[in-house]
Amino acid sequence: MSANAIQARGVGKTYLGERALTALTALTDISLDVKPGEFVSILGPSGCGKSTFLRCIAGLERVTEGELQVDGQRVDGPPDHIGMVFQRDALLEWRNIERNILLPVEFARKPLKDYRARVAGLLALTGLSDFADRYPRELSGGMRQRAAICRALVDDPRLLLMDEPFGALDALTRDQMNIELQRIWLETRNTVVFVTHGIAEAVFLADRVVVFSPRPGRVADIIEVDMPRPRRLGDRETAKFGGYTARIRSLFNDMGLIKEPPATVGEVKIA
Amino acid sequence: MSTTLDKARRVVVGGTAILVLLALWELAVHVLKVRPITLPPPSVVLLELAREWRWYVDHSYYTLITTLGGFALSVVVGVGLAMLLVASRNFTDAVYPMIVALNSVPKVAVAPLFVIWMGTGYEPKIAMAFLIAVFAVLVDAVHGLRSVPQDVLDLGRVLKGSRLDFFLKVRLPGALPSILTGMKVAIALSLVGAIVGEFVASQRGLGYVILSAQGTFDTARVFAAVVLLAIMGMLLYGAVAWTERLATPWRVVHD
Q1: CB–CB of A86 and B158 under 8 A?
Q2: Are B236 and B67 in contact (CB under 8 A)?
Q3: Residue A94 is nearest to which of B151, B160, B248, comparing CB atoms?
């Protein structure tokens, strides 16, 4: 058994179209190790396959090349005991918040009463204690996503997969959620794979940032973020933090993803 | 509370409007000397209802039972079929074309057939009410059961629950709003089906009352039956709408 929570060796994913010409390679030659208890961000432009990679880890998609293991076992269908958070919270509208959070427990056919205390703890941790018996539609977007995180954590998963979980939130709420996710993670210390296209968010949260290239997705670089925790939002203005983001931005620049006009003030043309 | 006040206001305004309309109708019939055989004044219709209320209650009851029978059957069969259609692609491919073909037949046209098969009791009327209503339930239930968001489907797979758990805890409750919408349409259609059934062959029910009164040019009696049907239709719809509110408390209710 390997010591890695996730181990990818030359992982590739090709979607076969009806004809050979329409085949689409989403991922190619991804090699990556994630240690237990590590927080890894996967960062890349839209359509680079970062979500596809996450879905492969979750067993929702099959890899077509290479070897992908979760806890030393080849991924074949969703691994046991993982938690997943989606871009939209995927809460069930007809269940109150507590019952939503208990859904994984129900599906695992475990006794709900063993988890009441756990749910209460998670609700307190995410500031949702007063909303246990509310329906999702009564909550704001940020609160809903926090409830979705509680749901993912309720059965203490060994691996937490987050697919652009704050992508649909406004900037301020997103900052707040970053702070809270860090706080939750510092308490639970699950292994986390966090997919995002936000550079600052990726650096702020992660022990390591894995930068993907545009399609077909490849690992362009892996950046160790060596900053003490708990990090504060203000840390984003430090030179060190700026160094990380600048390095990533220049990577994106080299990939031709960021096109800026020259810095000199020129004639502005309005089409 | 302002909402209760608003409700009261709406009842008062709506009620007043109806009373004004009835008064105008009454007045117009007298002033213009319309023959009662063409259009009886509301007072005569009301008198007709009051005079023979027992008889009307009896016939209303018959139509009500027929309607509810057809409605219940349409919900059970409609939702059941929808579940099978959603569960099995083969079943869908085998059965769906037939369902579409059957739905495009004007259902009223087969009413005489039901009389041949089932006689002149409750059965052919319930069958007619069922046949007209079932497609509304079926279509909405299929739509509801199929419209589980991708995220939620993925969540179900990651949680590794049984198919039954996913169906009972996710698919079915998620489809409930759609199913109830279908039921609101179906209850109205069931009443239509019941009346059609009674038109074709019956000695009982409000459809029979209308048809026999037409035969004797008893226009007041036709109107009386129509009024009862209108009241019954509203009450039945209201009952389903009320059930909808009870069954789906998580939704915002728009009246």
Answers
A1: no
A2: yes
A3: B248
